[in-house]
Amino acid sequence: MGNFGVKIEKFIKTFIDAEGYKTVLEGLQNTLIIAILGLVIGLIIGTVIAIVKVLPRYKRTVRIFQKICDIYIAFFRGTPIVVQLLLGYYVLFPLLQIRISGLWVCVVIFGMNSAAYVAEIMRGGILAVDGGQLEAARALGLNFSVSMAKIVVPQAMKGILPSLGNEFIALVKDTSVASFVAVADLKYAFQRIGDGNYEYMVPYLVMALIYIVMVLLITAGIRAMERRLARSDRNS
Amino acid sequence: MIEIVDLKKAYGDNVVLNGITETIHDGEKVVVIGPSGSGKSTFLRCLNCMEDPDGGKIIFEGVDIADMSVDINLHREKIGMVFQQFNLFNNKTVLENITLAPIYLGCKKVNAAKRKNFGRKIANVFRKEKKELLPVADKKQIKQDATKKAHELLSRIGLEDKANEYPSKLSGGQKQRIAIVRALCMEPKVILFDEPTSALDPEMVGEVLELMKQLANEGMTMVVVTHEMGFAREVADRVIFMCDGVIAEQGKPADIFENPQNPRTKQFLDSIL
Residue A235 domain-assigned? Predict the structure, then answer.
């Protein structure tokens, strides 16, 4: 065990004296940026896809859009996130002649990836809302998109909040592959600290701890949100 | 008010409406009765195109709203609808339920007018004869008016204290009366009732029917699908008996109930009375 004590001492030395915590904070920041912005993008695109998928099918354009959405979902659920990141960083953005840093590539790709999952979750949520809600809104003269935005989607959100929480947790953990496209995320930061003196045991343990704490915090946050939303429909 | 010409509707091979021609006049109260599966609900839901008709015309204020190229939303504002399952918006308070559509649609019209005025202002620079600008209402005023009206309507049905409650806290009868008020707040030309009392506990049917009677006395045009024969007898100007997707018989309530001509009407009335 004496050996382990030395390792901890070494880690503390690099972490505090050699300002390793700055690298970690930067990594944490990047991880959170990717996860949060990714979820926001995912929610927006995912909701749109979900709505397209629940549209009545008798118009041809609708069927075409639905096919496109199916292909989108098949691609993003059928390939590993690392592959999508590499394709985005080395193929998609260079081809489009867009020059953005790896961080923003990550944000976009993680957003598009989570959109595929959010779309399926959201579709279930929308189908679970009583069809009469949409009918009532339409009967008042509101058009389809407004009825969806004001009445159906907010109610769907309430039902799918736990699943969305899972998606966010998965997203936070998935960001650990961001270093594939030269982004200094949390995992990369601890790898750097370990690289400094070839001592990886303690840094990686601390890294795992930080991930767990983040996930626990998110879980608690979602619980609180669920309780607040439940207040409006159950008798408080 | 509403002119229905040869209305047809089928789900696959199942023909639900088989050529209905009918006129609903201004201020008329029409009650539609008939056995289940006779197409009476579908008929009602075709009147505001909740179900798209497969054939025929529905002429409302001179416009064929069954035509897919017509902006149906504009016409639906003037056709209120009350559902069997109330369908109050669960994520909105009672007050929001009532004011949501009037405020949103009012503000939308203001925005459209503003856009149009902007275009006209620019075009007027080059015109010799200036075009007049459209009047633009004040959005705050629209909000205030709608809220005030909602409160008035709520106090009329004695539920003003529920304005900030969510629908889940209300009884069925209260929900349905608020649903009627929600339709009223749009100042519709006609209100369609789709079995408004069928999902209610028996002791709450009375309060809803009472409100409907009040509306009838005020001269509102109403089309009601219902099983409440007492209501039909008392309020209706005309009773329509539907069977197998067609109007089998119609006439004054007294004639239909006392002296039905069609054997199917007789059979139906015998079975329920």
Answer: no
